[in-house]
Amino acid sequence: MQIGLRAHDAEYAPLNELIPNIKKQGFDCIHMALSKSIKEFEINKSSMTPGLAMYIKRLCDENLVNIAVLGNYLNLAHPDPEALKEITDKYIVHMRFAGILGAGVVGTETGAVNAAYKYEPANHDRTALDIFIKNLKPVVRAAEQFGVIVAIEPVWKHIVYGPEQARYVLDEIGSPNLQIIFDPVNMLYKGNIEKQDSIIVKTFDILRDDIAVIHLKDFVTDGDELISVSSGTGGLNYELLLSKIKEYKPFIQCTLENTKPENAVATREFVQNLYEKI
After folding, report:
1. Backbone angles phi, psi at 225, to 5 degrees
2. Overall pTM > 0.90
3. Strand ranges (DSSP E) for 90-224?
4. How confident is the model over 234-259, as a mean pLDDT?
5. Is the CB of residue 210 less than 8 Å from the CB of residue 179?
6. Extended beta strands in 98-177, E state
């Protein structure tokens, strides 16, 4: 198992310092959302040049880390056609950039039927799922053209909210360039916490060949809400999750979420130590 960090969870520094700093903390890979990680200049279609991609790649190569996920978490079910076209264009730019960068995957969540990107019951309707599939297809075609992988991340509040819906999307599109980012906490809400073990098991049962990356965080409850926290500080069954990773995905890239600069190393050590004991 390779453990990485979201670049924007590290203490901010310019790129030429940020990537070496992440490596010095013992991380093997990086989840990079460009607009969150880079503050020296604006990230847009104009600035995402081959030169920028090759510069980041050179920094990664020099520091023996790689980009596990190039994040572009936009709403592919946006109801406004003009906004959707702009979103789709941004995904295609990210596919081209990832191909030059050598990123493992371009990651995305699966959207909502409203412009606010919020949960509503209609997100879980079959109509919403079909809309998402329709809008995802040109993004997957771009991934195929640029030789990269686009990976969708199921989230309970979004359109693809569990392993069954993820399996359906993969089968409907039928492309080897479409895979899954598995974040078990994202599939949970207050009403299914007690089923977390079965959700983890089912995800590996029906999706394991297609899981490209795993996100690692934890959760606590606050009334009816689940609050995301760093790994090992909440209620997720990490022994079960890590045992499945060790059995089926021993070299997969696992990126930490919801860490802070002051606890990132301790969180990595928690995951590594537990993984070694299993």
Report:
1. -105, 145
2. yes
3. 105-108, 150-152, 178-182, 211-216, 218-222
4. 97
5. yes
6. 105-108, 150-152
